[in-house]
Specification:
This protein has 365 residues and is of the alpha/beta class. It folds into 2 domains: 127 residues, Enolase-like, domain 1 (2-Layer Sandwich); 220 residues, TIM Barrel (Alpha-Beta Barrel), CATH 3.20.20. The chain contains 12 helices and 15 strands. Strands 6, 7, 8, 9, 10, 11, 12, 13 and 14 form a 9-stranded mixed β-sheet that branches. A 4-stranded antiparallel β-sheet has the order 5-4-1-15. A two-stranded antiparallel ribbon has the order 2-3. The radius of gyration is 20 Å and the shape is globular.
Length: 365
């Protein structure tokens, strides 16, 4: 079996009428949103896909041309060679292989492997479980009451944990949200807090002390990931676990410094922009060797993340953006009444793309 072709396609789908809000002053417009996919075709007729491609607008025709030049004619099961070659090109300033493109190629190759061998990816990775708890990950909201109502609704649906993305980025106002949600859901629901690195060290320390009082499960991206000294300080002075490494500059090669310097309690990665499934499983295993949790960052319903999580002992949750965003596929993994999401059992990623609903691609190269 050899790789015959590589295609990158971008579609647009209708967005729900109510706009999402990541910041109170910048709601997403209604209309259409992108659905991007990487398609790798073999001479055996097997096609591998990667959806939810990160940085979709930065993947251009020169990007796919370089990828085709490097991998067409190769055995698609030679994932490690392909990954190392494209990582090398990603690190070379003149090569347009973005981290999102590398990630998409790797995910699509794992999809091919699963289909060729008749197994879901998490089984090929070394299955540890076939389901995992989700946590609902909020959008920014305009009022505190909206966070309260959503968290209570999640708890009533059997969801074990809820993560707050604040809309102000101002410590005192953000903590008002945390206090209100904790009061509403009680002490038996896990709560996380993610200000997306908008605080300086002093602000993060004050917020962290308030989160300690509220018994939050983790404090994510309290400062920017590159501020390792700040993360070390926060970890030493706070009880709430520090969750970091969502955006390290060198992907998985950045992670050892965080581990050795004890800069966080929980390591973060994402198959969409850490280089794919291959490095994320390595990151999870490395963290396991250090006795640490690895919680994958996700948005919408990141199915490639789900396969890694179901193959790694030290992953506790699957992040699900809430309200759920599900589009472009014919069916999605099941979330049961106890708040577990179940891994697909079909070969590969276990997905089927709904090309009929997507229509014609707006870009294809």
């Amino acid at each position: 079996m050899k790789i015959k072709d590589v295609r990158y396609e971008v579609y647009f789908h209708e967005q729900p009428s109510a706009p999402r809000v990541h910041r109170a002053d910048v709601p997403e417009p209604t209309g259409k949103k992108p659905f991007a996919l990487m398609r790798i075709i073999t001479d055996d007729g097997i096609e591998g896909f990667a959806t939810e491609v990160f940085g979709y607008s930065n993947i251009t025709e020169p990007t796919t041309s370089v990828i085709k030049r490097e991998i067409v004619g190769r055995d698609p099961l030679d994932r490690e060679w392909i990954w190392q070659r494209l990582w090398y090109l990603h690190g070379r300033g003149g090569a347009p292989v973005t981290l999102g493109a590398l990630s998409a190629v790797d995910i699509a190759l794992w999809d091919i492997a699963g289909k060729a061998l008749g197994q879901p990816i998490y089984k090929l990775l070394g299955g540890y479980r076939d389901k995992i708890k989700i946590y609902a990950s909020s959008y920014g909201k305009l009022t505190i009451q909206e966070y309260v109502d959503e968290a209570v609704s999640c708890k009533e649906q059997g969801i074990a944990a809820y993560k707050i993305h604040p809309y102000w980025g101002i410590g005192e106002k953000d903590i008002e949200i945390c206090r209100a949600v904790r009061k509403a859901v009680g002490d038996d629901m896990k709560l996380m807090f993610d200000p997306a690195g908008r605080y300086n060290r002093e602000e993060a320390l004050w917020v962290g002390k308030e989160l300690d009082k509220l018994n939050f499960y983790w404090f994510e991206l309290p400062v920017q990931d590159h501020d390792i000294e700040g993360l070390v300080m926060l970890r030493e002075k706070l009880d709430v676990p520090i969750c970091s490494t969502e955006t390290p500059l060198r992907g998985m090669y950045s992670i050892p410094e965080y581990l050795l310097r004890r800069a966080c309690d929980i390591v973060r990665c994402d198959t969409r922009f850490h280089g794919g499934i291959t490095p994320c499983k390595k990151i999870a295993d490395t963290c396991n060797a250090f006795g640490m949790q690895c919680e994958l960052h996700g948005w919408a319903c990141n199915i490639s993340n789900l396969h890694v999580e179901c193959a790694a002992k030290n992953c506790e949750f699957h992040e699900m953006s809430w309200p759920e965003e599900r589009y472009g596929l014919k069916e999605y993994p099941v979330i049961d009444d106890e708040g577990y999401i179940h891994a697909p059992q079909k070969p590969g990623l276990g997905i089927e793309i709904d090309f009929e609903s997507l229509g014609e691609p707006v870009a294809s190269y």
